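The protein record filed here.
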Amino acid sequence: MKRSSRRDPAYPHPGNSTAMPLNVQYRLGKLKSLGLLHGVWLDYGCANGGYTEALVQWGARRAIGVDVDPSHIAEANCARKSDATEYSTCSGFRLPFPDASFEGVLLNEVLEHVADEAVTLNEIRRVLRPSGLLVVMSPNRWFPFEGHGMRIGSRDFGFPVPFLPWLPRRLATRVMTARNYWPHELRDVVGDAGFDIVSVDYVLPVLEMYRWLPASVTRWYQRNLIRLDKTPLRKFGVSTLILARPAAA
């Protein structure tokens, strides 16, 4: 039975791919700069496979993408670029892999959509090697826009909604279509599932899809993204980045 959570949105949505070129480069660049992209990786909630393919391009020996949506897997297989990648459909409640199969698992903008956070993370812990790495990127409530939009009654608002994450949760979750976490909440969710937290960081928006600023300002921002990523402004990033390893038994 699914365990209810006060973070659960009223109108859960499966989510869409975020694998746009600059976003992939920026997000995986964080992992590559730390020397983390090697061995066999699982891209959990791979959508169209953009990050799965990039994991191999950026250093992983092999990458497997799984998703609950068969149409996403079909699209990923059609776009497959490397013999070192493969894709399969799975429910998420039970992954079709033996214990300790992966050096790394990427959970990129996915945890906020799953049916049960604890079940998902426990299954991921099962397939991770004891020294393996879990990478979680999920919405940060300090960011003043809810990127998944919202729903009021039968009407969907599929664009970033300002200040929705800053409303009291009892109000926000009534219209949200995905979970949204304060950084300490995401850390606790991962830690409570049997992981030791390695680090907590943030992911800035790259303004690739939603160009809220004038073109000249957007170009300046994107050129200086890595520099801005080292300032206190990163706390207001679009997502929180958690690195964690399975806790010792």
User: Anything to note?
Assistant: The first strand starts at residue 40 and ends at 44. The mean pLDDT is 93.
